[in-house]
Amino acid sequence: MIRALLKDNLGWILGYSIGTSLYILMIAAIYPSIAETGLIDAKLDSLPPELLEIFQFDPATMMDSVLNILSGNYYGLIFQIVALLFALTAASRLLARPIDSGELMLYLSAPISRSTYVFSVAGIGIAASALVALLNALVLWGSDMVWNLDLNYEAVVALCVSSFFLLTALFAVALFFSTLFNESRKSYLLGAALFGIMVVLMIVSGLSVDYEWLKSFSLFTLFDANAIIQGSSDWVLHCVILALIAVVFFILSSFTFKRRNLTL
């Protein structure tokens, strides 16, 4: 079963892993040239301070290293969108769509319980999250070898480990929604709505100190790339919290899926 699921889902897993890694490679490749020309500094100076605050861009330190650029450009912005799409895609492809298509009936007709299927799917999602984080880390390491970027490897490890736990937690939440409905469209829309609210809360919290409390309702507050790079984030604790969230939602997914009246 696991082999069949991996075969069917390897394409999108490699797509996210390679796609994000290629973006990191592109930033690493152009960093030496843009650091010398100062084009990014000039562009940042022309942007409104409020916009820089929302997207966590710090003009004073952004060009100090490629990690600072990635923390604002990739991990602080693009990665959030990628993480949401990754979680929704994984939950849809691994559980929601098999229910829609009736493919799940083939797996459950074998001596496989619903709980076994859910935890097998969870294992594949965790492995996919690990592949994304690991390949991102390897690309950063390889880029440092080629372009001598003088990376802070403690920060690299913290970023990649934190990204893995964030991906896993978001996937667990999306998987839970997939166990609630027989139609993949409904679970996808509900998950997308919740994740979209999380992103909006993070953006609004950056508009004013008065709204900063809103980010407490978003999982993304547990992944602060700028704070990780600056060494001011308790990222280990945040990873533990994300891991606990993932475990809770995996268990909830198994519980609800076992009690579902499936229309296969």
TrEMBL record:
Keyword Transmembrane helix applies: yes
Superkingdom as given in the UniProt entry: Bacteria
GO annotation, cellular component aspect: plasma membrane
An annotated Gene Ontology molecular function: ABC-type transporter activity
Annotated keywords: Membrane, Transmembrane, Transmembrane helix
Transmembrane domains' residue ranges: 12-34, 74-96, 117-143, 155-177, 189-209, 235-257
Protein name: ABC transporter permease
Species name: Chryseomicrobium excrementi
Origin organism lineage: Bacteria, Bacillati, Bacillota, Bacilli, Bacillales
